[in-house]
UniProtKB/TrEMBL annotation:
Entry keywords, A to Z: Hydrolase
InterPro entries recorded: AB_hydrolase_fold, LYPA1-2/EST-like, PLipase/COase/thioEstase
Signal peptide range in chain numbering: none
Protein's recorded name: Esterase
Family the UniProt entry places it in: Belongs to the AB hydrolase superfamily. AB hydrolase 2 family.
Coiled-coil ranges (or none): none
GO function term, MF aspect, one: hydrolase activity
Species of the source: Paenibacillus selenitireducens
One protein family per Pfam: Abhydrolase_2
Start and end residues of each Phospholipase/carboxylesterase/thioesterase domain: 22-205
């Protein structure tokens, strides 16, 4: 199979050939690339396999996974294809690399967060968890897609209090939507615009390490 996306993969340097590893698939924002996302999770690169997925559509000097009719209004057929292609890519990578299928995480920012949440709703417990930074769930995903339960999916959602792209109310509405669907849920806001603050990054890293069962308590601090 030829994957629909170009990608970077970072495998722990002292990998054990007899085991599989928890894995973070990163999805970048519109006009960005996979390298920008790696910096967020690099401190976990010896505990997780990290797969940075590059959007397959060019946008200026960067990339995107789908195009927009207007802000917050994806081109439906391109969005649908991105969801299908990303599901297929996750399966492809799981077969090709020593990825633990029971510990697969998506971490996305903005457009990547939108896709991460949509994929959680279509893949259900095929994912261990998602981290969605400054995004939302399109209405057509909620009404038109075949949704799977996310009861067993861990969800970390964060949003900038001064987000000028997706106002903070969108973050609260998105959090309420997932809070009704899983108890394994965390929502946090940060005094930022449309970005990822240092405190936000730290909270994400600690959350991922804990949820994957890699560390706890003081050991979590040492991983960072």
């Amino acid at each position: 199979m030829t994957p629909a996306y170009e990608y970077d993969i970072h495998i722990p340097s002292h990998i054990d050939p007899n085991r599989t590893y928890p894995t973070i698939f990163t999805l970048h924002g519109k006009g960005s690339n996979e390298r920008n996302m790696y910096g967020i999770v690099e401190p976990l690169s010896e505990q997780f396999i990290i797969v940075g997925i590059r959007g397959n559509l060019r946008l200026g000097a960067g990339h995107q996974y789908y195009e927009l009719k207007s802000l917050g209004n994806p081109v439906r057929d391109l969005f649908d294809k991105a969801v299908q292609d990303l599901e297929a890519f996750i399966a492809y990578a799981t077969d090709k690399y020593p990825i633990d299928p029971a510990k697969r995480y998506l971490l996305g920012f903005s457009q990547g967060a939108i896709l991460s949440m949509s994929l959680a709703l279509t893949m259900g417990d095929q994912l261990k968890g998602i981290v969605a930074l400054n995004g939302y769930v399109p209405d057509f995903v909620k009404t038109d897609y075949i949704l799977k339960p996310v009861t067993d999916v861990s969800v970390f959602i964060s949003h900038g209090e001064y987000d000028s792209v997706f106002p903070i109310q969108i973050g609260h509405d998105t959090a309420a939507y997932f809070h009704e669907r899983t108890t394994r849920f965390s929502f946090r806001t940060y005094p930022t615009d449309h970005g990822v603050a240092e405190e936000n990054q730290r909270d994400v890293l600690l959350w991922l390490a804990k949820d994957a069962g890699l560390t706890s308590g003081q050991d979590q601090e040492e991983i960072l």
